[in-house]
Amino acid sequence: MITTIDGALFARMIVHGSAAISAQKQQINELNVFPVPDGDTGTNMSMTMSAAAQEMGKKSYSSVGAAANATANALLRGARGNSGVILSLLFRGLAKAVKEKETIDGRDLAIALDFGVAAAYKAVMKPAEGTILTVSRLSAAAAAAAAREDSGAEYVLENAIREGLVALEHTTEQNPVLKKAGVVDSGGKGFLVILQGMLDEMRGEAMPEGADLPEAKPTGADFASLGDEDITFTYDTVFIVRKEKENVNLEPFRAYLNSIGDSLVIGESDEEFKVHVHTDTPGAALTESAKYGILELAKIENMRTQAEDLAAGKHVQSTDDLDQVEKQLEEPVIAEPEKRYGVVAVAAGQGLASVFKDLGVDGVISGGQTMNPSTEDILRQINATPAEVVFVLPNNKNIIMAAQQCERLVEGKQVVVIPSKTVPQGIATLLVMDPDADIEANVSAMTEAMSGVSTAEVTYAARDSDFGGFAIKKGDHMALLNGKLFDTQKSLDKILKKMAKEELFQNAEFINIYYGEDVKESDAEKALKLFTAACPKAEITLLSGGQPVYYYMISAE
């Protein structure tokens, strides 16, 4: 058994833990009890851990303290969703406990796990039983008990996981919603998957299949070893593309690149993919990539010219010389204040982004529903906003905690998070923001405006479920009203008609209908006519939101 953990082993454990949750993220997503198709706990936790795994690959760590601190910092900035933030807090506390340690044994590990639990509980306003908090707390308690029997690190972690699995099974009974759905807590499950991955690394187990491992940076060609006769294709081409949608199928792109080149390597994460290919037509490769996302960075080298220069004893200009440029692109832009107030908002869909831009928002971060932005994403936009005070509108309950982490990370600006849970709430806050008022007055007015907005969301059921008194079948249309299940029907029209007759909409002065990317304009016009006929007192506006997942977002004020 492994008795102690050094810096190098800890770093490998983090990478293995990231691979473990990556391989099981979809199974964890499916534990989300609400049957809307935005269950994303597994994705959020996987992407959060991936940030730490990538950090571990950048350098060697001589001590556990240094590796744990780097892990905590990467998790903090990479945290996505509430589950990702809580995960980052668990490791933040752990790092605090071992910051001075070169190596740790099982007793140190038990103390560190307890520190992590304390940090997470402290940050959550109303800790609830039957969650990741419960699982982590009981795991830490079991670790402490095991450390009194045996100080070996492997033994302690093994016992922490064993008791954690028992606690996880009990979450079904502790949470009535989980009990109704017959599932365990998704966050608790994700946490134990990560710990198991870390234990597997201690035992020398192989990485799980199907995991998205941190990709080694594609290297340029070894020009010193190349002669002209060895070069089939001229240009060594490397580029990065940011995905515009989740679950992009890259197989057609892979086939295309193989048809115009060789030496193809594609590394993929949830947000972007990186391509390395040798080809005679790099322009064609870049043009084709636009079908799959937005081109962010490209480097192209003429291998024939470079081989000739090397043979002649000349200096070779390589894309390696552009690494500094890439580094600069990745460094945060910190804008000097040009005004008192600025606003950053989160929204999914070009239409919604345009609405926020028209209302004076400085930066719109793409996200919400199935793709939560990280703390780093939000932080980057805050830094780029030229204002003394930056209001942040998360517009999704699962993004609020990630946004709040930015309040203590930003220097030189004041960050104020307005906890908007829906896009219409965020829009309402902007309509009352006063550039001449003080911060307290604006916060009060924006919070009050937000509370006066009701939001309906229409989507489809991702799976069969018995929820809120409804027997829901996969593919049924569903309506949520202020986050609670309102109705479910086979027919979308029936749902809209029932919603329009709801007292809340009947008494509304203003109704805004935002239709999503999967709704035809002609169908949206029908929805407008339906609400216009049913709600004669209201001023009704139809807007193309372009949001994914939700066919309609409808606000009432």
- Which geometry do the CA atoms define? globular
Helix- and strand-based class? Answer: alpha+beta
How many β-strand stretches? 18
Strand-residue proportion: 15-25%
Just name the CATH architecture of the largest domain: Alpha Horseshoe
Mean pLDDT figure? 86
Give me the CATH superfamily of the largest domain: DhaL domain
Number of domains: 4
Placed side by side, the strands forming the largest sheet appear as 15-14-11-18-16-17
Biggest sheet layout:
6 strands, mixed
**Could you give the distance between the termini?**
63 Å
Set down the secondary structure blueprint:
Elements: E1 4-5, H1 7-29, H2 41-56, H3 64-78, H4 81-98, E2 104-105, H5 106-123, H6 132-149, H7 153-174, H8 176-181, H9 186-202, E3 235-243, H10 251-260, E4 261-268, E5 272-279, H11 282-289, E6 293-302, H12 303-311, H13 323-330, E7 339-347, H14 350-358, E8 363-366, H15 375-383, E9 387-393, H16 400-405, E10 414-417, H17 423-432, H18 439-451, E11 454-460, E12 465-467, E13 470-472, E14 477-481, E15 484-489, H19 492-500, H20 503-506, E16 510-515, H21 521-534, E17 539-544, E18 552-556
Parallel strand pairs: 7-8, 7-9, 9-10, 16-17
Antiparallel strand pairs: 1-2, 3-5, 3-6, 4-5, 11-14, 11-18, 12-13, 14-15, 16-18
